[in-house]
Amino acid sequence: MGFCSPVCKVFRRGKYILLFLISLSVLAWIAHLSGETIKDAPVSFATPQALVKGDSLREKLNALAATPDRLITPAPKEECPQESPLLQGALKLSFESSLKLKDVESDNKAVIEGEYEPSDCTARQSVAILIPHRGREKHLLYLLHHLHPFLQRQQLHYAIYIIQQAGDVTFNRAKLLNVGYLEALKDYSWDCFIFHDVDLVPENDHNVYVCDKQPKHLVVGRNATGYKLRYKGYFGGVTAMNKEQFFQVNGFSNNYWGWGGEDDDLRVRVELQKMKIVRPPADIARYTMVFHKRDSGNKINKDRMRLLGRTPLVWRKDGLNSCTYKTMSLERLPLYVNVTVDIGKPLS
């Protein structure tokens, strides 16, 4: 009994010490876990950018929950195909006397203030259609009726500009087209410009209204000429030039008052710049001309041949850089932008 008593006392003390050490270990372990929790806690309040860059799944999930708007973005549209699947080829045109502007507006509700853009793809070119005009309301109605769906089937981003000549002085188609180019560029940096007579309606939507590497003439034939080119070198009716090409030739001359000569002048300007005019195939580049009598304010320009002979001498200073006019009004109507301008009068 005397020997066991000291030994038992030692074991009892050792047991207490062991329990004490175990308690300290448990406390240390709890403190360690608490420290990790405290250290991790700020992660859930980090900025969305930091969370997205984090390594843990929890951080990424927190980021998605915290910033749902960052992920709700429209998918980028693919570029429209080289050839639109909507093209129908040659169509029979109709010119009903009962047609009303409201009917054309109702048929083209996707056109906003004269502008249209495909909803399912990104157009390959953005095109401004420029139409010089005065007193041809029925012709304009027929053209809009056919041209809007024609251009939409080609999956183009486009806008139609009607450039109205105010007053009753002699008509100047070329100067109005210069005005249209300058005014349209105030709206948008258009890739391509189509210079379009109001009385010519395209028959085949494979005659695509886009610009090429060279100036393009779109009217190879019309019903009034048996669908043949009017004459070799003809560059009138409907032509396409990109922004840089038209700027390079300094646009049209401003001095052709009355009918004729301005399109030949433009052809000379193109040739002086070593450009080559291209045309679509003859069986595609066909137009119906809506017949009409010549306007009293658009008589044949008897001075056109003299002016044409001077083109190589004056083209640098007669054109876009000398085009002066006064804008009377600018209206953004459902089917087109209407620009009414005072372009002055002939010098003599």
TrEMBL record:
It comes from the Eukaryota. The keyword Ubl conjugation does not apply. Residues 216-293 form the Galactosyltransferase C-terminal domain. Its main location: Golgi. Pathway: Protein modification; protein glycosylation. Its EC number is 2.4.1.-. GO terms for molecular function: metal ion binding; N-acetyllactosamine synthase activity. Keywords: Disulfide bond, Glycoprotein, Glycosyltransferase, Golgi apparatus, Manganese, Membrane, Metal-binding, Signal-anchor, Transferase, Transmembrane, Transmembrane helix. Residues 80-212 form the Galactosyltransferase N-terminal domain. It is found in: Golgi apparatus membrane. Responsible for the synthesis of complex-type N-linked oligosaccharides in many glycoproteins as well as the carbohydrate moieties of glycolipids. Belongs to the glycosyltransferase 7 family. This is Beta-1,4-galactosyltransferase. It comes from Gymnodraco acuticeps. The gene is b4galt4.
